[in-house]
Amino acid sequence: MPQSLAKVAVHLVYSTKHRAAYLNEPELRAELYAYKAAILKNNVDSPAILIGGMPDHVHILCLLSRKFAIKDVVEEVKQNQQSGSNDNRLHWQIFIGKVAMASSLSVSRISSRLNST
């Protein structure tokens, strides 16, 4: 079976209930981002490239595993959000983007591009 060298990045976005600014505290956001990164890496073999956001929504950019379909990755992150917290203020948006990535596009280059905009 031929091996594919393509990397597929997935951009997930979800928001707080009614887009209220529940994620104001930097400590809360940092804890949430670390938790999401661990779920992606450990449960669906899809390491996070970047996780960030604003007080009313979260963006996740991760590499899609060859072992899991995109729907499985989304369901795992969504399910762990609901079971990992008694706080029901976070709800999923519909936006999911999927892009092919050249292997030369490194995390540091992605970060610098995001920070320059």
Characterization of the model:
With 117 residues, the protein is α+β, with helices and mostly antiparallel strands. The protein is 37% helix and 31% strand. It has helices at 26-44, 70-83, 107-116, and strands at 7-16, 48-54, 57-63, 90-101. Strands 2-3-1-4 form a four-stranded antiparallel β-sheet, covered by helices on one side. A hairpin with a 2-residue loop joins strand 2 and strand 3. The chain is globular, with a radius of gyration of 15 Å.
Blueprint of the fold:
Blueprint lengths: L6 E10 L9 H19 L3 E7 L2 E7 L6 H14 L6 E12 L5 H10 L1
Antiparallel strand pairs: 1-3, 1-4, 2-3
Helix pairs in contact: 1-2
Task: Please sum up the structure shown.
With 117 residues, the protein is of the alpha+beta class. It has helices at 26-44, 70-83, 107-116, and strands at residues 7-16, 48-54, 57-63, 90-101. It has a 4-stranded antiparallel β-sheet, covered by helices on one side.
Per DSSP, what share of the residues sits in E-state strands of 2 or more residues?
Answer: 25-35%
Strand order of the largest sheet: 2-3-1-4
The average pLDDT is 76
Kindly provide the radius of gyration, computed on alpha-carbon positions and rounded to a whole number of angstroms. 15 Å
Sequence of secondary-structure elements: EHEEHEH
Shape: globular
End-to-end span in angstroms?
Answer: 41 Å
Low-pLDDT segments, ≥5 res: none
Q: How large is the count of helical segments?
A: 3
Class from secondary-structure proportions: alpha+beta
Count of strand segments: 4
